Amino acid sequence: xxxxxxxxxxxxxxxxxxxxxxxxxxxxxxxxxxxxxxxxxxxxxxxxxxxxxxxxxxxxxxxxxxxxxxxxxxxxxxxxxxxxxxxxxxxxxxxxxxxxxxxxxxxxxxxxxxxxxxxxxxxxxxxxxxxxxxxxxxxxxxxxxxxxxxxxxxxxxxxxxxxxxxxxxxxxxxxxxxxxxxxxxxxxxxxxxxxxxxxxxxxxxxxxxxxxxxxxxxxxxxxxxxxxxxxxxxxxxxxxxxxxxxxxxxxxxxxxxxxxxxxxxxxxxxxxxxxxxxxxxxxxxxxxxxxxxxxxxxxxxxxxxxxxxxxxxxxxxxxxxxxxxxxxxxxxxxxxxxxxxxxxxxxxxxxxxxxxxxxxxxxxxxxxxxxxxxxxxxxxxxxxxxxxxxxxxxxxxxxxxxxxxxxxxxxxxxxxxxxxxxxxxxxxxxxxxxxxxxxxxxxxxxxxxxxxxxxxxxxxxxxxxxxxxxxxxxxxxxxxxxxxxxxxxxxxxxxxxxxxxxxx
Length: 504
Prior knowledge:
By secondary structure, the protein is of the alpha/beta class. The chain is built from 12 helices and 18 strands. It has helices at 58-62, 127-130, 172-179, 227-230, 255-268, 295-308, 324-348, 382-390, 396-409, 411-417, 467-493, 496-503, and strands spanning 7-13, 46-51, 65-67, 87-92, 95-99, 104-108, 114-118, 149-156, 162-165, 197-203, 206-212, 239-245, 283-288, 312-315, 365-371, 374-380, 425-428, 434-437.
């Protein structure tokens, strides 16, 4: 049974918003006292929270489907629906959040960091909120929108100050058990450690964490052994400690060849952009198992060569605890230096400036795509797509209200500019959008209509004139008025009016 999981795919479904209510207040002697439909409640968000209490993604491996609560519908007497409860999912510090395409959304590296990965749906407005001085009794309400439904990928990268790297059975687990209170599994066969172990070490006044990374072998960066799965846990570490086995009995192995292979695998592993390559980070070498026969002699033999390469070398024994104190203080020095450098970098980091949204940025765009049936006009934008989702298309007045909102947003003018004509196919939304046969005669005059509630006369007539027909009628009427004025002027010049005035 798995006890450690560092990569998992979550299937999230945020709560839907509640529908608005259509209601009319009824009082004694006032059967229609005005609208009193309440608003629907918002759906619950799904939030990831970085927590020190979590060390693995195992709970999400067992239950990958998570759902937040829906919002409640609005009610009469101006009662709003209840708000859907947010769902907070605690994840270990060091969790990287990606979408289904692999794009990084967030890197939760500090306690308490939060990210809303699936926003809940928006509650619909009731008819009371939609009433105005001109539309006093709306016969419709807005529907609640759906919450986001998506898949995200969680990838855990252990946050530690020092990473212990080395061949399998080099003594990394024994070392972390000797210098901290960690209790890793220890055995004398390769790949005993199947997941990273964390231990807290105190050296003087410095406290830091050490990660025991599972053993690396040649070809680990290409997928051999367990190294490819756990090399990413080295990315977060400030320094590396190479644990070399001086007591191995395997033929063809020695501390120097082991170190060369590990260095080659670390160099072949690509780190994310902006991070220091693994081999450019501070490194120490620990020659382990000097307490076994011939171990001390082998350590003394290879130590000059390692120091010649520029490494600080420590001869240790994880079993007898020989040489551990100098090693822990040396690691503390590297950690303190890295923390000081990061603090200075944080102070020099430029401030984040949040600017308001520009007023001339459009809330939508119109894309034209050709087909065998003619051009199709796609209206893409958060506002129009949300408005369509909020509309009850079984209610004519609600459809008229949608037409008014789209016209005021400028959608009709943009369609005219793109060459749309009456009867053109208009789709609002890129995926699974609502398809309309566009009629540009739906002008924004719903507030002036005197039709019964829930109806819109503009949607009833099948012989509605098009814009060009209305324009032609207007021109003919203006021409007739001009001709009438000219006729009167000719009669005046002919003296017809003057004779009548004299007789009077």
